[in-house]
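Handoff note, outgoing to incoming analyst
You'll be picking up this chain. Sequence as last confirmed:
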Amino acid sequence: MSEPQPQEGRRPIPTSADEALGIGRNHFPSVWPDGVQPTLHVHEFDIGYLVYPVFPPREDPTAYPRDPGGSHIVISKADGAVGALPNYPPEQAVEMYRRHFLPGA
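Most recent structure output, in case you need it:
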């Protein structure tokens, strides 16, 4: 999987979910504090790509849930701009992106 290369100092604009994932990986740790490697997913929508971590099921269902904290990353299809959003379900995060990053849309 290759990350698109910027041209003349411009940020890369992803043309596929795989390219967005390559860009998004740069915004997440390679290993979580508990030593687990993060699994990242991409949710493509009309104007961008939402890149977010997915956590494995807990081994002990009675334990406190893992606090994922952190954020989701959105990469614009128009210009490659990267924004951070709270760790909400994908559709809710996309709606927030539309409201806060594209207020006139």
